[in-house]
Each structure stands twice: as structure tokens, then as C-alpha cells.
Design a protein that fits this description.
Number of strands: 20
Structural class: alpha+beta
Oligomer: single chain
Shape: flat
Largest sheet: 6 strands, mixed
Helix content: 40-55%
Length: about 725
């Protein structure tokens, strides 16, 4: 290897680490493999592939540290060790090293490339992309062990910022992954070192207190266990007792939650009694052990957790008690059987679920399967997980912005989906984009790891074809909303244009008559017609021809039975009505059951009934909608569409009942509802259709929907309800 790459102290470290790795991995790696790896690394050093990392560390020595940590933490595995050592050499020849090593090296390189994007690792999207890029679970294991080796190496690094960044990342990302895989020792060490590098004062204080009391603590645990052991043996129970002290990180978490010092942590000392018993006697012997412990030491009832009688939903079974031991110390005691202990450690109730770590169903089941293999395999666990594929997020893609922000989209999402996901305006003005340095069109389908830059133009507008280019509901809904808005805007432009043309040619503009002409021009609704006119897609002469033609048809069919209300045709009823129209000096639309052939509808926003002061509004479909004069929408309609209003009045009696809503407010007295409904039932020509009651803090509120013939009967009903004891207010709801 090139001597200038290694400092003098690094050469000695290189020789020491090489000998250590050869000793740890001699059972799986042949001497010839070591020679080949040495030659490959030497070539990489000469080619400049082994530069210093961001901490200034020698990459070769760091790879050796990772490989050694892998051997000691999980056991030696040939292909994983080779992949670790060859990861920085560049392309790995599958013919020389095998396709499996090549695949592992490719996965390591892909994952390493994520860190060049400046993306925040403190996001679920980054973790999901990491798992997607890794492709092979062994790559994730390598990354976890690599992070362990790095955390061990940066203890006294001069750059506090770099150290803190790595520590946060290890705690947020790699420790939870290690926990899920059952790599508990690695998880605990990562968490402890993370606390050490981010809050060294707290870590040092807790560690010092634990070290100062270690001998006393061990002696205390032995003293605590011994009488329990003798009593359990005397009762003929088969068991194993384990004693432990929590990790520094766990102690710190407890201190934060409980606002206590180290000595006051309830379960600083934890004892686990694991009984060897047949299934049919599990509960009885667990409770026998519980009785023995609580007879010797006073329990804290508030700290009893009985997951033996009623197991947790995830299958966890155990008895947890906290007792007051010698020297006035609290000790947590867990009592369970070997079967329960196995389930708690793996299987139904994985330890990471028990601790409340956030999980996802697909990843959970997959990780559990891998963890079981790691713990239970007898013929080399790494051999059995080679064929595991990281496809847990195959239905999603994760893409970057040029600044390194990370976004999640569904599989099949396009460049246009991404633009709308960022911002609606970015989507509506999108004309294309650059993906990984290459220009692409709107319909380009994104892949995980893509870096996407959006191109926009202020003149760009969505068109209906865009709906076929997107897969996300957000993009589709935004496109439809913009298309509808554009259509309405074009329709207003078209209406104004037509009105000006009619005025210039001295033709009376009658929208009801126009609505009859629209189908002749090939449009289903008048809005579509106006929109097309606004876009300049219709010849104005064709419109005039159709409009005049409808006028001629109406004149010829003036005696027809049905007449469209949109044409404002007036129906003569009685002489009195005719006289009234004449004296008013204007046309009046007359509605009622005895008026036939009018195309009108009672508006639902105000529910007019016979006797209300009303007016008509010609809708875009040519239907006259009848509103009360005090309708909540009346002011808006009069201001925006004065040319579409029709003076309207009732004619004769209307046979069908009208629906009216009453709002009643009063004291929440007993029988008030019965009294109100009794009045309604006794009222002639009034029916109760529905009732909704709400009572809060002594106040009664109700909404009554009643059927009435006219305003006179409604007003009479309101007066009678007002006399009910406890009723404070009755009014018609708009």
C-alpha cells in the first residue's frame, strides 16, 4: 500500500487490526481471500479511492474496525466482511468475488450516497428510503455496525458539531433499527454513547455515581436475591434469577420522566425470576413466587402491573412488582415463565413493541422474522437471510429536492405529482423538470433516490390531459379545481362578450331563450356554452342564428301545454291577478299548483313556503329557483346577477305541504319536549317530520322540521309553542 496514505501511528494500527480480523474471521475466510482483499485495497489506495472521511480518519482502518465489530457482535460472515473491506474500492468484479458480495457492496454504496444529499435523517422518510436503498437486510446490519465503530472512534474528536450530528443520527435512526432486529447490546451502546456525546456532563455524572456504587450495588443485589432464592428452593420451584442495573441512557430517561435522582429510580435495580414450569401450572407458580417476594419485602401497590391475568394485546405476559428492599431501596421484580420470557424477547411481543417504539405493520412483521433468524439460526444466520429482500416500501418512492429535502410519493408518481406535492402554484405552472441532471417531461415517472428540480412558466395553465398524468389525489383534485375555475372565468368572459354583441346589433338578450338555443349548438349546459364562447371556439353568427330560430319556434308553439320558466312566460290565472300585473308596471312570475307547465324549483337554502315574500332566479340550467326575499343568499344574488332575477308571487292555494325548520331554545325542564310535540300533533294541518334535541348545562335547544300549508299556519304554531313553560325563544330557521 502507498506509504504516504498512512501516518506512522496508523501503520501500527493497520497491522494490529489486520491480525485481529484474521483471528476473528479465520473460520470463514481463507488466507487467499485476505491476500486478494489486501491487493484490492492497495490498488484502491493508489487510485485515490481511500481518501480521508469527514472526520479525517483513515478509511482502511475504519473498515477494519467495522469488520471486527461485526464478528464480535453477530459472528463472522465471509461475504459481509468482504463487502465491508471492498466497499471503497469502486466497482467489485462479481466474477472474482461473487454476485452476493457485489450486491452487498452496491447496497452499501447506495446507502452511503444518501448522505451526500444533505437530507435530514430525523424523518421517517429518510429511514424508509434507507431501507429501500439497502435492498438486503445485511446492508442495514453493516450500516448499524459501521455506525457503532464510528461512535467508538469519535470520543475525543475536536469537531463538536460533527460529533453531535453523528450522535443524534445514531440515536434517532440506527439505535431503533438495532432494537427492532434484536441487536440489544448494540442498541444500548449506541444510546449510551449518543448521550455521552450530546450531554457529556449528565452522562459523566450518572456513570460516576454508578461506578462509585458498583460494588455496593452488586452486593445489594446478591443480598436481595439470596433469601428469595432459599424460599423458592424450599417450595420446590425450578427457576433462574437474573439481576441487572439499567443502562445509563435508560436511567437518564427515567430521571427525566420521574424528576428523580439516580438513587430514586424505581427500577434502577431489576430482578427477573424465570420459572421452569409446565403450562398448566404457570399462573399458580407465578403467583406463588409473587407471594414469596411480597412476604419478604413490602410492595408498592401503585406499581403492580398484572399482565398475567390479562395479557397485553400483543401477547406479553408477566407480573411486575416494585418492592421496598433493604436499605430503603426500591427494586423492580419481574416474574414470568420460560415460555413467557421467550414470547417477551421475540415472537408475539417483540421487545421494541413492549417499549413503545413506533412501528408499522409491514415492517414490524418483516423485522420480527429477520430477528428470529438472527437469534435462533444454528448454521450461520447470515446464510439464511441472504434472500431477504428489502421490499417493505415497494409501493412508495422517496425523492429529493436540490436542497436535500425528502418527500414521499406513491409508486408511479410523476414529475407533475411531485410539483403539486410541493405547492399548488408550482404544479399549475409546471412545464417540466430536471431529474438527476437530465431534463424530463411532465409525465416522467419518479424512482426512489431521484433528485428533482421543477421548471415553471407564468404562462402555463393545466389542461384536461394532465389528469391522466398524475396518480396522487392531491394533484388530481388541484387540477380539477383549477380547470373548473378557468371554465367559470371563461364563461363570464363569454357571457359579457355575447351581451355586448347583442347590444351592438340591438337584439334583446333573453337568457331563458338562449338556454333553449344552447342544445342546438351542441352543448349540454349553458356554462359549457359560455366557456367555449369565451375561448373563441364559437362563431357569433351561429349563436345568433340558433337564438333567432328558438324565438321562431317559441312563437309557433305558444299554445303548447308546457312552457319553460326560463323564458319568463307569464300564465294568466284570475282577473285579479291580471289587474295586479298591469298596475305593477312589470312582468311577474306566478307560481302554484294551479299554474301548469312552469319549470321552477323551491330553493333549499331558505325553503320558501306559501305566503312568503319570494323572488325568482334563473339558473344556468334554465330552471327558475324560488328564494325567500330574506334568504341568506339574496343579497349576493341581487348584487351579482340582477339581470337574472324575476319578480314572483304565489297564485291560489298549494295542495302539498311545505317543510319549515323551527329553532326552539329554553330551560331543560322535564316534559318540555313532550309538551312541544303535543302542541304540534294537536295543530290542524301540521305534521312533525323530524326533531333534534341538544341539552347542555341546563339549556335546551331543539331543531324541529314541520310540514305546514302556508305561513299563516306556521306563525300560529310558533305562537303556541312560545306559550310552553320553559320555552324562551322560537323562530323560523333560515
Amino acid at each position: 500500500m502507498e506509504n504516504s496514505y498512512f501516518h506512522d501511528d496508523e501503520k501500527e494500527t493497520l497491522l494490529r487490526l489486520t491480525r485481529t480480523l484474521m483471528s476473528e474471521a479465520c473460520s470463514v475466510i481463507a488466507p487467499g481471500d485476505f491476500k486478494a482483499v489486501k491487493a484490492a485495497i492497495a490498488g484502491g489506495v493508489e487510485d485515490g479511492a481511500y481518501g480521508r472521511d469527514r472526520f479525517g480518519f483513515n478509511r482502511v482502518n475504519m473498515r477494519l474496525n467495522t469488520a471486527i465489530a461485526l464478528c464480535r457482535s453477530l459472528g463472522a460472515d465471509r461475504n459481509m466482511i468482504l463487502a465491508i473491506m471492498l466497499a471503497d474500492t469502486g466497482n467489485v468484479d462479481a466474477g472474482c468475488w461473487g454476485t452476493d458480495v457485489e450486491r452487498l457492496v452496491s447496497g452499501i454504496s447506495k446507502v452511503a450516497s444518501l448522505y451526500s444529499r444533505s437530507a435530514s435523517v430525523e424523518s421517517d422518510n429518510f429511514r424508509k428510503l434507507l431501507l429501500t436503498f439497502a435492498e438486503d437486510i445485511r446492508v442495514i446490519i453493516i450500516m448499524i455496525v459501521d455506525r457503532l465503530a464510528l461512535m467508538r472512534a469519535i470520543n475525543h474528536h475536536p469537531s463538536e458539531r460533527l460529533v453531535r450530528d453523528v450522535a443524534y443520527e445514531a440515536n434517532y435512526l440506527y439505535a431503533p433499527l438495532a432494537h427492532r432486529l434484536g441487536l440489544y447490546a448494540i442498541k444500548s451502546e449506541l444510546e449510551d454513547m449518543s448521550l455521552k456525546y450530546t450531554n457529556r456532563e449528565t452522562y459523566t455524572r450518572i456513570a460516576r455515581e454508578l461506578n462509585e456504587t458498583k460494588a455496593r450495588r452488586d452486593a445489594y443485589i446478591d443480598t436481595f436475591i439470596e433469601p428469595i432464592r432459599r424460599k423458592l428452593e424450599a417450595e420446590g420451584l425450578k427457576f433462574e434469577i437474573k439481576g441487572r442495573t439499567k443502562s445509563i441512557y435508560s436511567i437518564w430517561n427515567k430521571m427525566k420522566k420521574q424528576h428523580n435522582g439516580v438513587e430514586d429510580i424505581f427500577d434502577l435495580f431489576a430482578i427477573r425470576i424465570v420459572l421452569d414450569v409446565e403450562p398448566e401450572r404457570e399462573k399458580s407458580e407465578c403467583w406463588m413466587a409473587y407471594s414469596i417476594v411480597t412476604d419478604m419485602y413490602r410492595p408498592n401497590p401503585a406499581r403492580l402491573k398484572d399482565w398475567l391475568s390479562i395479557p397485553k394485546s400483543n401477547g406479553y405476559e408477566s407480573l411486575h412488582i416494585t418492592v421496598y428492599g433493604p436499605q430503603e431501596r426500591w427494586v423492580e421484580v419481574q416474574i414470568r415463565t420460560r415460555r413467557m420470557d421467550a414470547i417477551a424477547e421475540k415472537g408475539l411481543a417483540a421487545h421494541w413493541k413492549y417499549k413503545g417504539i413506533k412501528s408499522e405493520s409491514g415492517l414490524d412483521a418483516w423485522m420480527n422474522n429477520v430477528r428470529d433468524i438472527l437469534e435462533a439460526a444454528e448454521t450461520g444466520p447470515m446464510e439464511l437471510i441472504k434472500n431477504f429482500k428489502m421490499d417493505v416500501y415497494s409501493r412508495e418512492v422517496f425523492v429529493f429536492t436540490p436542497k436535500g429535502d425528502l418527500y414521499k410519493l406513491p409508486q408511479g408518481a410523476t414529475l407533475l405529482d411531485f410539483a403539486f406535492n410541493i405547492h399548488t402554484r408550482l404544479g399549475t405552472q409546471c412545464v417540466g423538470g430536471r431529474v438527476n441532471g437530465k431534463n424530463h417531461k411532465l409525465n416522467y415517472r419518479l424512482c426512489s433516490g431521484d433528485t428533482v428540480e421543477i421548471f415553471t412558466s407564468s404562462t402555463q395553465e393545466p389542461n384536461p390531459d394532465w389528469l391522466s398524468m398524475v396518480v396522487t389525489s392531491k394533484a388530481r383534485n388541484k387540477i380539477r379545481a383549477v380547470l373548473k375555475e378557468n371554465e367559470n372565468r371563461q364563461a363570464e368572459t363569454g357571457r359579457e362578450l355575447l351581451q355586448r354583441r347583442f347590444k351592438n346589433r340591438k337584439i334583446e338578450f333573453d337568457e331563458g331563450r338562449l338556454s333553449r338555443a344552447v342544445p342546438k349548438l351542441g352543448f349540454k349546459t349553458i356554462t359549457e356554452f359560455f366557456s367555449a364562447l369565451g375561448r373563441g371556439e364559437i362563431d357569433i353568427n351561429d349563436v345568433l342564428e340558433a337564438y333567432v330560430s328558438v324565438g321562431a319556434d317559441n312563437a309557433a308553439a305558444s299554445s303548447a301545454e308546457r312552457v319553460s320558466a326560463s323564458l319568463y312566460t307569464l300564465q294568466a290565472d284570475s282577473g285579479a291577478d291580471v289587474d295586479e300585473r298591469k298596475t305593477d308596471g312589470g312582468d311577474v312570475l306566478v307560481i302554484g299548483d294551479d299554474i301548469k307547465g312552469l319549470n321552477y324549483r323551491l330553493s333549499k337554502c331558505c325553503n320558501p313556503i306559501y305566503g312568503d315574500d319570494v323572488f325568482g332566479f334563473v339558473s344556468a340550467e334554465g330552471v327558475v329557483k324560488i328564494h325567500r326575499s330574506d334568504c341568506p343568499n339574496a343579497l349576493h344574488i341581487r348584487e351579482k346577477y340582477p339581470y337574472r332575477l324575476i319578480r314572483t308571487r304565489w297564485s291560489g292555494k298549494v295542495g302539498a305541504q311545505f317543510g319549515a325548520t323551527l329553532r326552539v331554545v329554553g330551560k331543560d325542564d322535564i316534559g318540555i319536549v313532550t309538551n312541544i310535540t303535543s302542541i304540534i300533533n294537536k295543530q290542524r294541518d301540521v305534521t312533525l317530520r323530524s326533531i333534534s334535541i341538544d341539552s347542555d348545562d341546563g339549556l335546551f335547544q331543539g331543531l324541529l322540521v314541520v310540514g305546514v300549508n302556508d305561513t299563516s299556519s306556521l306563525n300560529q304554531l310558533i305562537r303556541k309553542i312560545s306559550t310552553v313553560k320553559g320555552v324562551k325563544n322560537v323562530q323560523r330557521s333560515k
